[in-house]
Amino acid sequence: MLPRKAPIQMSPFEYAPAPESRAVVDLQSSYGLFINGEFVDGGGNAFKSISPATEEVLAEVSEATDADVDAAVKAARTAYTRVWSKMSGADRGKYLYRIARILQERAREFAVLETLDNGKPIKESRDVDIPLAAAHFFYNAGWADKLEFASLPGGANPQPHGVVGQVIPWNFPMLMLAWKIAPALATGNTVVLKPAETTPLTALLFAEVCQQADLPPGVVNIVTGAGPTGQAIVDHPGIDKLAFTGSTGVGKMIARAIAGTRKKATLELGGKAANIVFDDAPIDQAVEGIVNGIFFNQGHVCCAGSRLLVQESIAEEVERRLKRRLGTLRVGDPLDKNTDVGAINSKAQLDRIIALTDAGESEGAERWDNGCALPDKGFWFRPTVFTGVTQTHRIAQEEIFGPVLSVLTFRTPQEAVAKANNTPYGLSAGIWTEKGSRILWMADQLKAGVVWANTFNQFDPTSPFGGYKESGYGREGGRHGLEPYVKGTH
Amino acid sequence: MARVDVKKTYKLYIGGKFPRSESGRSYEVYAAKKGTFLANAAQGSRKDARDAVTAARAAQPGWASATAYNRGQVLYRVAEVMESRRPQLVQEVRDAEGLSPAAAESVVSQAIDRWVWYAGWSDKYVQILGGLNPVAGPYFNISASEPTGVVAVLAPQESSLLGLVSVIAPAIVSGNTVVVVTSADRPLPAITLSECLATSDVPGGVVNIITGKAAEIAPWLSSHRDVNAIDLAGAAGAEGVDWAKLEEASADNLKRVLRPAGTGSDAVEPDWTQTPDLSRLTAFLETKTVWHPKGR
Predict the structure, then answer these.
(1) Which residue in A225, A355, B75, B142 is deepest, having the highest Cβ count within 10 Å?
(2) Which residue ranges does the record annotate as region Disordered (chain A) (predicted)?
């Protein structure tokens, strides 16, 4: 008889650090604006873009003044009139294919720079943001010479607006740039784009890609800056159409600013998505979906599943398994390939998350976090769960835009629908159940532009994205995403 | 001696009923050409508009969940009833727009045909506008159109029936419900249309019609939090209406805004005799995209 071995004492599974190399990124100390195919100095005060994980200064970036925006719009107009509107769709498409290929070739460089500037985990920028950005260019490239088949307003001869102004957020800097620029160019528009104040660097690297692709000067112009620069784009009389992704508050300001004009707008705004788990759901998969829904990209996702609606009979079990799972999330160095949750994008955003979670506690919800160690420098927030949340709590109504989940319960499908729709937002929703007819019934009832059933946070260039109600209007992605960029739509 | 005929009282149409304005007000309506007195129309108020929104909201889920086939048949029935009331509609359009008998006949014919055209879209536009999306992964992914909800409609000031039909039909065919402010000076064909609607199995509250002044009523609709969209067609030529202000107020809850035709700040009434495209229908739709994994 073999001797019995003593049971092994399991130790916490330790990972060695696995940092992605920064060497692939060649950061300049300062960047200008990209106008008419060249980098030029902006007229405003330069501002610093920092790494939110370390607070180190990455580069100085120009602030575009009204005059700079005017120069960018004029360059875009000239490029539209003289070059881009006269070019065949096939040739426009080939430029977009070139850009898609260069993004693939330089994918690692973009991923590392995105992670440095934004604070998101390298595994997300590497596996999600940058591949999807390239895919959006590839997808829209193919549309450029097939628009007459796209059932667009204008039918056999859809017409671009002309010059499009685009203002994008900091949560998916390159991906939002691709969502905006690729369909605009494919349909024959030229663009002036402003990246977010805290994440301008990949957009400036994209300007280099435009140069490498020999894109005609002025077709894409990148102006950096903060709110006033965005305002200058919105107000510029030479802009025919606006596309904005960001907060509902700013979206409403834009809608007011263009009221009474003939400028068109696409608005992709905030959300407070319900992720609804029924008692027959595959619990382990649902828990993974809940985690992906709210802790992907630190919860800096407009369509994040920030309200968990769980059927009362399984609420305790789901909470227990969820907390156990959150205990295994690795929070820290975004460049580490093992990191699950990176840095909060800015001090301002961290302050907002702290204020709202404090309100959650003071209004009576029960707060829990995974207790993980956090780095000394930078902006960090532990994955946090609130239970005992009611519909009137601010953490159930307002967009937190951070790694914070509010848990509510329900008894019947009707109650789940009523609670899910009890919000001015309507961007996305999740449903977890094994019952097919219930999925389809729920999907019909939910007032949301994207419904994920037994999955969450899936994105694809062919799939339209956008909200109901105060989550904005217009769709991005797919055939639908072309519509806002041709005349005759609203 | 000639018989003394019975004159019709023109009232509002809200929630399937024909009330007078809660304000108790009415205003005189005259024929366009001869200036003869036609009727005292109800002068709708803010409260009437809010009651109409309540009725439209209550009716919306039921109308949207009716099958597309059913909506198509109900709307086709409206055209049948319009045809049966043709002499009345022709006379009212003649009076309202100052047209010759032949021209008025033509306008009514086009209005009925337009209604039939839109009715036929009820079970077709979803297939045209949506479908399966070939995503790069093991997922079933489909996009389909849904109605946006309650739509406020400023009906055209000039075209009292063809224009009216051209703004109501595309909004309701998809399952929206509407609150319509009629032409101020030419409101009578709209009330006769509502009598057609009331006798055509269109559920009460799907179409609500308020006669009166857009300048008085439209601001309350544009700022109303329970209205999802607004069609500003009737701002063209409406006395005292600044469509920029209405669009600005609409931003409070991000209403979908269908601007009036025209360039710059001008608002012009389009030529409603032109064959329409789908733009007035798609203006009040939302696209919903549903994902589900595939697996064994």
Answers:
(1) A225
(2) 470-490
CA angle A10, A12, A16 (to 5 degrees): 125
Quote the strand ranges of A256-383, DSSP E.
Answer: 264-268, 274-277, 307-311, 366-369
Phi, psi of A311, deg, nearest 5: -65, 140
A268 noted as active-site residue: yes
Q: Count CA atoms closer than 13 A to B1's CA, side-chain side.
A: 3
Nearest-angstrom CA–CA distance, A245 and A233: 14
The rounded distance, in Å, linking the Cα atoms of A381 and A398 is 18
Q: Which among A269, A439, A462 has the least Cβ separation from residue B135?
A: A462
B174 located within any domain:
yes
Q: Which residue of B has its CA nearest to A135?
A: B136
pLDDT for A4 beyond 90: no
| pLDDT digits 0-9 by tens, B44-100 | 999 999 999 999 999 999 999 999 999 999 999 999 999 999 999 999 999 999 999
pLDDT higher than threshold 90 for residue B139: yes
Split into its structural domains, chain B has a count of: 1
Q: Are A382 and A331 in contact (CB under 8 A)?
A: yes
Query: Within 10 Å of residue A21's Cβ, how many Cβ atoms?
Result: 9
The rounded distance, in Å, linking the Cα atoms of B206 and B201 is 11
pLDDT classification of A164: cutoffs 50, 70, 90: very high
Distances (CA, A) of A10 to A4, A7, A13, A14: 18, 9, 8, 11
Closest Cα in chain A to B248? A256
CB B205 within 8 A of CB B232: no
Tell whether ipTM is more than 0.90: yes
Integer Cα distance of B230 and B283 in angstroms: 10
Q: How confident is the model at residue A154 (pLDDT cuts 50, 70, 90)?
A: confident
Between the alpha carbon of residue B15 and those of residues B46, B190, B203, the distances in Å are: 16, 15, 8
**Whether pLDDT at B153 is above 70:** yes
- Boundaries of domain holding B69: 26-293
Among chain A residues, the shortest Cα distance to B146 is held by A444
Q: How far is it, in rounded angstroms, from Cα A471 to Cα A449?
A: 9
Suggest the residue from A458, A459, A475, A486 to mutate for an interface test with chain B (most B CBs closer than 10 A): A458
B268 close contact with A: CB closer than 8 A = no
Contacts B60 to A, Cβ<8 Å? none
pLDDT digits (tens, 9 = 90+) for A9-51: 545 667 889 999 999 999 999 999 999 999 999 999 999 999 9
Q: pLDDT-derived band of residue B8, with 50, 70 and 90 as boundaries?
A: confident
CB proximity list for A273: less than 8 A, separation 6 or greater: A293, A303, A304, A305, A306, A307, A425, A427, A428, A429, A430, A448
DSSP state of A365: P
**Residue A410 to residue A433: CA distance in whole angstroms:** 14
Q: Is the dihedral of CA A446, A449, A454, A457 positive or negative?
A: negative
Q: Are the Cβ atoms of A259 and B135 closer than 8 angstroms? A: no
Rounded Cα gap, residues A290 and A304, in angstroms: 10
Is residue B49, in this structure, part of any structural domain at all?
yes
Of A269, A464, A488, the CB nearest to B289: A464
> Which domains can be identified in chain A, with CATH numbers?
30-269+469-485 (3.40.605.10), 274-453 (3.40.309.10)
What CATH number corresponds to the domain at position B148? 3.40.605.10
What share of chain A has pLDDT > 90, as a percent?
A: 95
Mean confidence (pLDDT) of chain A? 96
- Cα B9 from Cα A399, distance rounded (Å): 52
- Give exposure, A191-227, as e/b (b: 16+ Cβ within 10 Å): bbbbbbbbbbbbbbbbbebbeebebbbbbbbbbbbee
Instruction: Please count the helices (runs of H) and the strands (runs of E) in chain B.
Output: 10, 10
